[in-house]
Amino acid sequence: MIQSLYLGLKYLQYHIYRTIILIGAIGVILYLPLGLGRLISESETQMMARADATPLIIGAKDNATDLVINSIYFEQCNVEQITFSKANELDRLGFGYSIPFISVFNARNYPIVGTTLDYFRFRNLDIEEGHNLQFVGECVLGALVAESLNLGPGDSLVSSPDNFLDLAGSYPLQMKVVGVLKTSNTPDDRAVFTDLKTNWVIMGLGHGHEDMTEVKDPTLILEQDSTSITASAKLFIYNKIDGEKLESFHFHGDKSNFPITSILFIPDNHKAATLLRGRYKTDIIQEQILIPSEVIANLLENIFRIKHIFNTVFILVGFATLLILSLIIVLTLRLRKKELYTMFTIGSSKTKTFEIVVSELLVIIVGSLMLAAALYAISGYFVESFIQQFIL
Amino acid sequence: MIELSNLEFHYPGSDFKLKIDALNISRGSTTAVIGQSGSGKTTLLNLIAGILEPFSGSVKVGNTDVCLLSDKARRNFRIKDIGFVFQDFRLISYLNGLDNILLPFKINDSIQLNGETNIWIKNIAHEMGIENKLGKYPHQLSHGEKQRLAICRALVARPSIILADEPTGNLDPNNKTNIMNLLFAYARKNNATLVTVTHDYDMLKDFDSIIDFNDLTIDKV
C-alpha cells in the first residue's frame, strides 16, 4: 500500500495544478455547508445573546420586530414614536427602572442613539478614552465608530440631515465627541451615543440663538409684547452647542410630550416583569411590551428557514461534483490506460493498479478535507467580526 | 529453455489464428522474430510471458508450464523472470528515471529492493550510460536515452528471459546498434534468453536463431 501511495503521490505531484484545482474545488464544496452552518449558528447565538440581555422593550403598537431591531441593534426602521412621559409613568409603577431611547438619526452612516446614563450602566459600557456624557450637544462614540471615522475626544461629529429638501426638518447639529467606549463586540460599538436632549435638538424641538431682548437688527423681530417675542426666519439658529451658547439652548413645549422610540425596561424581578406585562394585556394601553428574545427567536426561525434551502442546494451541488469527479476519474483512467497496461504487462495486478488510483483519490479527498477544515478554522476566527460587520 | 507445443491461439471475434506445433528456444540464446504486421509476433511474446492464455497447447519455461500457473503466480513469474522492452518505451511519464527503473519493485511485492539491487541498478545505469539521467523525467530525455532507461527497467530484476518488441523501431541507426549491443551483452553475460521482434533485417545476422512468422519456420543463423 505504501508503494501504491508513493506512485499515487508522484502522479499527483506531476500534475500539480490539476491536483490543486481538484482539491480546491472539492474543499470549497465541502466547506460551504459547514461554514454557512457555523455562520448561521454563530449569528443566532450572538443575536440571541443581545436579545437575552434585554429584558423588556416597550414601544408603540407597531411592528414588533422593527421595534426590537431598532431598540437593540439600532437598525433605523420606521418605528412609531411614543412620548417621554411613558418612561416616567413606568418608573412610578415601582416594578423596576426604565431607559428611554431614541434611535432615529445618523451621523456619517452610524446611528445616533439618544438615551440616559443608565443605558451605559445597564450594558456595562465603559469609557476607554475621555469621559461620559455631561452636557447637551456631546456624544460618546462606540469603539468601531471612533476607529473607522478616526475620531476621539475633542473632535466633532455632525449629524446627517434626514432630508435636504425639507427646510422645516431637522438641521445638522455639530456634536462634540467627549468619549470613546471600550470595545464590546455588540451593536454598541457601531453607535453614536448622545443624551435625549441632544436628539430633541436635532429634531428641532430645542434650539439656541442670540438673546432676542438684545438684538440690534429690528428685522429679526416679527412681534413683540410684554411677555413674548416672535422672531423672523432671519434669526440665526446655532448648529453647535458649546460653552457660551449652551445657556441659550432651550426647548419649546412640555418635555414629557417629546418623542422617544422605545423604552428598555429592567424589572426588579421576574414577578415585576410578569405584573408589568399583565398591565399591557389590556387594549386601553396604547403601547406594547415585548420580550426581545421571543421576538428575535421568531425572526430567526423565519430567516433560518433559508438554511434548509441552502442545504438542499449544497446536496445537489455536492452530487453534481461527485458526478463530475467520477467523470474526471473515468476520463483520466482512459488516458492512463496504456500506463496501467504497461504496469500489468510488467507484473502488476489489477488490484495494485486499483490501489494506486484509490490512493490518489484518497490523497485528493484528504487534501480537500484538510482544506475544508482549514477554511472552517479560518472563518471561525473571522466569523465574529463578520457577524458584527454584516449581520448585527 | 522455452518450449511451445501444440499451441493454438485466437483472439475472440477475430479471424487471426496462431498455430505452433513445436517451438524451442534454448536458454542463453538470442532469437529474432520476423514477419509481416499482424502475423502474431507480439502475440507470441505475450504467450511466452503468460499475458495471453493459449486456446490449447502448452508454453513451458524451464520446467514450468506457464499456462498452468495461477494469475498471481504468472505475475510473479513475469516480474522475476521476464524483462520487457517495448518499441514505444512505455515509460511512466510522472516518474523520474530512477523511479521508472524501480517500477517493478513498486508494483509487485514478490521482489524486494535490497542493497545488492541498488548496486545492480547503478551498474546497469552506468552500462547504459544514463547514470546521470536518473533524476530526469521521460519527457526530458532523448529517444535513445528513453530506450536505455526502459532496458534498465527490464533488467532490474535480473530476468532470465528478455522479450523485446521492436526495441529499435523508434531509434536512429547509431542508437539501434548501441541498444541491440547492450541487450546482446546482457544476454551473453547473464546467460539470459533474448527474444526480439524486429523488422530490421540488417540485424538478423547477430542473432543465434530467427523465427520467421511469414511461414513459421525456425532458421539457425
TrEMBL record, chain A:
Keywords: Membrane, Transmembrane, Transmembrane helix
InterPro entries membership: MacB_PCD
Statement: the UniProt record of this protein carries the keyword Flavoprotein: no
Pfam families for the chain: MacB_PCD (PF12704)
TM helices/strands, residue ranges: 20-40, 309-333, 354-378
Coiled-coil stretches: none
Domain MacB-like periplasmic core, chain residue ranges per copy: 100-199
Protein name, as recorded: ABC transporter permease
UniProt organism field: Carboxylicivirga marina
Organism lineage string: Bacteria, Pseudomonadati, Bacteroidota, Bacteroidia, Marinilabiliales
TrEMBL record, chain B:
Domain of life: Bacteria
GO MF, one annotated term: ATP binding
Residue ranges of domain ABC transporter in the record: 2-221
Pfam families: ABC_tran
Alphabetically ordered keywords of this record: ATP-binding, Nucleotide-binding, Translocase, Transport
SMART domains: AAA
Keyword Transport in record: yes
Family as reported in the entry's similarity comment: Belongs to the ABC transporter superfamily.
Matches recorded under PANTHER family: ALPHA-D-RIBOSE 1-METHYLPHOSPHONATE 5-TRIPHOSPHATE SYNTHASE SUBUNIT PHNL, LIPOPROTEIN-RELEASING SYSTEM ATP-BINDING PROTEIN LOLD
Protein name: ABC transporter ATP-binding protein
